[in-house]
Design a protein that fits this description.
Helices cover 11% and strands 33% of the residues. It is mainly β. The strands form seven sheets. Strands 18, 19, 21, 22 and 23 form a five-stranded antiparallel beta sheet that branches. Strands 1, 4, 5 and 6 form a four-stranded antiparallel beta sheet that branches. Helix 1 packs antiparallel against helix 2. The chain is elongated, with a radius of gyration of 50 Å. The termini are far apart. The relative contact order is 0.08.
């Protein structure tokens, strides 16, 4: 804001400053350079002789107001404030967009300005790059985008041809119904019966999905709701998602629960499964031997001599107790039981 001033001879300038207020009732107005909203943006380019120019940087719409220059001399009566001051008008370029942009529709962007221009020509920018070389419509006040899609979520700005100033960029908020609906399973892999399984439904939608509903293939009634669903039953499951612009369903995913296998443990008795099998084999073998022994004893009772004392030693030369030997073998869990002893 260019400014110059004069004062009577015989006075000496004591202070010069700018303010947005007038002096009232002998109360000095606030110095603009000390105002927190301005002190980092104003620069006094004047002097104490005749120049009072002020520079204001990073101007915003809030800076549109009246500004006053004031000087104080070394005498109480040598004070002056310019009236009516300088009225600063802030003009701007703005891109006007529809409040709601729906996918598939045509959208018109409008470049508005408060400047009084005579038949101005405009230029449009997409993500900071001029569109004048790609479309003839980019020189008009209106920019028409055909069949908008979610991929048109770009920033658009406009300017007046021949001027460097551009409007603030706006980003289109394209609304669309749910799409790309899918279901994920956790945990993945083989699922054991009676364990908890979580199905999670995901989708792409703007605005985000409001309702998640779960169905089991072949059934008409929902089996659950919410983005995640916990179940323990086999079947084909799918989700249906909805926002204010539409509904979409996922592909059904198969979930199979495999029955768990019971394992008999002999740890409580100190005998493993292989040891139990060996013990059972030994009991059967002993029973068979006892039946054979009874037959031999009957033969000797009918007139034959008594059986030899070492009859059982032929089974195992280290002990005369076959029952103890076989039970001991079972407890020690041998890989095989030898049964090739010959009855004497």
């Amino acid at each position: 804001m260019g400014c110059s001033y004069q004062y009577p001879c015989g006075y000496a300038i004591n202070k010069t400053f700018w303010s947005t207020e007038l002096a009232r009732n002998n109360v000095e107005p606030p110095d603009l350079s000390l105002d927190p909203e301005y002190r980092d943006r104003v620069q006094f380019l004047g002097d104490t002789q005749s120049i009072c120019t002020l520079r204001l940087r990073n101007v915003t719409e809030q800076d549109q107001r009246q500004y006053y220059f004031r000087f104080l001399t070394t005498t109480d009566t040598g004070k002056h404030q310019d009236k009516p001051g300088v009225q600063l008008f802030i003009t701007d370029l703005q891109v006007e967009t529809p409040e709601t942009v729906l996918e598939g529709e045509d959208v018109t962007l409008t470049c508005n300005t408060t400047c009084s221009l005579s038949q101005p020509k405009y230029t449009w920018y997409k993500n900071g790059v001029s569109l004048r070389t790609t479309t003839s419509l980019a020189s008009n006040k209106h920019l028409i985008l055909k069949t908008i899609s979610k991929n048109d979520v770009n920033s658009y700005s406009c300017g007046v041809l021949g001027q460097s100033h551009r409007s603030s960029a706006v980003t289109l908020n394209v609304r669309y119904p749910p799409k790309n609906v899918s279901v994920s399973i956790s945990p993945s892999g083989e699922i054991v019966e009676n364990s908890s399984v979580i199905l999670t439904c995901s989708s792409d939608a703007n605005p985000p999905v409001q309702n998640y509903t779960w169905f089991k293939e072949g059934e008409t009634s929902p089996v659950g709701s919410g983005q995640s669903y916990i179940f323990n039953d086999s079947g084909l499951y799918y989700c249906v998602v909805q926002n204010k612009y539409g509904t979409h369903r996922s592909t059904a995913v198969p979930v199979t629960l495999k029955a768990g296998h019971s394992i008999i443990s002999y740890a409580a008795t100190g005998i493993s499964l292989s040891g139990a099998i060996t013990l059972l084999t030994a009991v059967i073998w002993i029973s068979k031997r006892k039946r054979q022994n009874k037959t031999v004893a009957a033969v000797y009772e009918s007139g034959h001599p008594s059986p030899p004392d070492d009859m059982y030693t032929a089974l195992n030369p280290h002990t005369s107790s076959p029952d103890y030997n076989i039970l001991s073998m079972a407890r020690n869990q041998p890989s095989a039981v030898s049964m090739d002893a010959t009855l004497m």
